[in-house]
Amino acid sequence: MHRTIFDTPVVNKVLRALSLGFLRINGWKVEGALPEGASKCVLIAAPHTSNWDLPYTLMVAFALNLHVYWMGKRSLFNWPFGAVMKWLGGIPVDRSKSSNLVAASAAAILAADGPLQLVVPPEGTRGKTRHWKTGFYHIALTAKVPIVMAYMDYQRKVSGLGPVLQPSGDVDADMAVVKAFYATIKGRNASQFAAE
Predict the structure, then answer these.
(1) Separation of alpha carbons 124 and 116, rounded Å
(2) Pick from 3, 4, 74, 44: which is nearest to 162 by CA?
């Protein structure tokens, strides 16, 4: 994987301090920690209902000392911001082409020299949707890494890391557990999110 802001020691420390300060001043609480054995994992990013989710996610990642990569639509990586987006941990995804994103993502996790948490929103969009995509699940299953349920509850102003799920291969049963956890979490635009 490419080098990111999380690999840049001095910048990382400064941004961690600034992130903690910003979140505290704005009334946000950060909960949880990355459990042992989950230094390589898939982080569910839900609910994803606003452009504000990315900056808040990055601040929470700094607060929790995570090393995240996240997937974004290819247009976010156009000039002049492409290099910056990649430095922030972004991986461009071209949704118009069918590619084996699951296999490529799992291979990248396995090939990483150190910690790597891949952030994947199950909705696949900020728009209103009732159907969750299962790509995050299949990436974790293929890479044999745990899924950590990350959340950003704008109503309570609480963000962090919740339960860990080791994919069993029974997608329906495991997705029921995931959706039950997110049922009470409110995104910035709560009407656009349904954990059904």
Answers:
(1) 20
(2) 44
